């Protein structure tokens, strides 16, 4: 086992026996009089977190602010909680870093692109849920990805997030030392989501590994970036090796998402639609309408899962 992983694994095991509250892996926070969540423009000194967020049970996160607004409008209608004017206020209106929407027990938050962006958002989201005294939280990333060997528009529920060398781990440098964190996701939740997809029966869905990269172009073996020093054969060899190791899609946030949810005791899943088959090309060339419809698929699946969990199906 890699150095660093065993201690953190022990902490995960300890914490999973402590029930379903958010586990905050930071003793310093207890000593702070006030906690400012700077990138959300929210703070415990200025906002009543238990009153604002205490009833949250489902948190959905995704890259784009407009997609996360569309998701809250969709889920509001599905749960019969739609607003009169069809509008939903952005709780983080004091900043343009992230957008956040809430309806009933569902919170919808944007996270931007890439590991650093989602990691900052997750630090503040996990603290928000802790300060609000939330329990039994299910956190799901709904996003887009590039598929490997799948028909475009297929949905991948992540079994394990792996790095660009196909290892199920996330490397975080802390105080100059590389810590290796596990990227396991909740197996039971992945199965429940798969069952929901079967019940909807509208699009192809698979459970598979998701490769999380640090970049969209060279990092994902594309030939169409500003820099590319390999040939098509080398690219295809890499993508086929990824496929053979169990990878079915590629995106840019799942590893740190899984690692942080693991350490915080949060039940989590990643559900991404594939916009193209990377064995057939690199450019995302489908029409706007087709891409919009593809992006609604993870929303539909997770919307159905939430309705079912609330006994509304
Ligand atoms: C999927 O799509 C984005 C890149 O286009 C990135 O945020 C991701 O994970
Ligand atoms: N997002 C990615 O990270 N890669 C793709 O190919 C498509 C969407």
From TrEMBL:
Residues 57-306 form the Nucleoside phosphorylase domain. One of its GO terms (cellular component) is cytosol. It comes from the Eukaryota. Phosphate binds at residues 97, 141-144. GO terms for molecular function: deoxyuridine phosphorylase activity; identical protein binding; thymidine phosphorylase activity; uridine phosphorylase activity. Keywords: Glycosyltransferase, Transferase. GO terms for biological process: CMP catabolic process; dCMP catabolic process; dTMP catabolic process; dUMP catabolic process; UMP catabolic process; UMP salvage; uridine catabolic process. Substrate binds at residues 220, 222. Pathway: Pyrimidine metabolism; UMP biosynthesis via salvage pathway; uracil from uridine (phosphorylase route): step 1/1. CDD domains: UP_hUPP-like (cd17763). Its EC number is 2.4.2.3. It catalyses: uridine + phosphate = alpha-D-ribose 1-phosphate + uracil. InterPro entries: Nucleoside_phosphorylase_CS, Nucleoside_phosphorylase_d, Nucleoside_phosphorylase_sf, Uridine_phosphorylase_euk. NCBIfam families: euk_UDPppase. Catalyzes the reversible phosphorylytic cleavage of uridine to uracil and ribose-1-phosphate which can then be utilized as carbon and energy sources or in the rescue of pyrimidine bases for nucleotide synthesis. Shows broad substrate specificity and can also accept deoxyuridine and other analogous compounds. Belongs to the PNP/UDP phosphorylase family. This is Uridine phosphorylase.
């Amino acid at each position: 086992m890699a150095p660093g992983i065993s201690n953190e694994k022990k902490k995960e095991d300890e914490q999973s026996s402590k029930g379903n509250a958010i586990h905050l892996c930071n003793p310093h926070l207890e000593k702070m009089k006030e906690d400012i969540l700077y990138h959300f423009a929210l703070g415990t000194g200025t906002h009543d977190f238990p009153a604002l967020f205490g009833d949250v049970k489902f948190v959905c996160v995704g890259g784009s602010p407009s997609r996360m607004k569309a998701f809250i409008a969709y889920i509001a209608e599905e749960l019969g909680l739609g607003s009169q004017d069809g509008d939903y206020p952005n709780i983080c209106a004091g900043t343009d870093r992230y957008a956040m929407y809430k309806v009933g027990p569902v919170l919808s938050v944007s996270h931007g692109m890439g590991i650093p962006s989602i990691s900052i958002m997750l630090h503040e989201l996990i603290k928000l849920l802790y300060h609000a005294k939330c329990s039994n939280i299910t956190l799901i990333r709904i996003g887009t990805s590039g598929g490997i060997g799948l028909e475009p528009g297929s949905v991948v529920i992540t079994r394990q997030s792996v790095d660009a060398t196909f290892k199920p781990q996330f490397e975080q440098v802390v105080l100059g030392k590389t810590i290796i964190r596990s990227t396991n996701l909740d197996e039971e939740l992945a199965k429940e989501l798969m069952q929901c997809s079967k019940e909807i029966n509208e699009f192809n869905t698979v459970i598979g590994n998701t490769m999380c990269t640090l970049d969209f172009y060279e990092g994902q073996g594309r030939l169409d970036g500003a820099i590319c020093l390999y040939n098509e054969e080398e690219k295809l060899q890499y993508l086929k090796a990824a496929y053979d190791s169990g990878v079915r899609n590629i995106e840019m946030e799942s590893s740190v998402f899984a690692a942080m949810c693991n350490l915080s005791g949060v039940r989590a899943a990643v559900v991404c639609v594939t916009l193209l088959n990377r064995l057939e090309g690199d450019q995302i060339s489908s029409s706007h309408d087709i891409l919009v419809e593809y992006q609604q698929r993870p929303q539909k699946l997770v919307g159905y899962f939430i309705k079912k969990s609330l006994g509304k199906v």
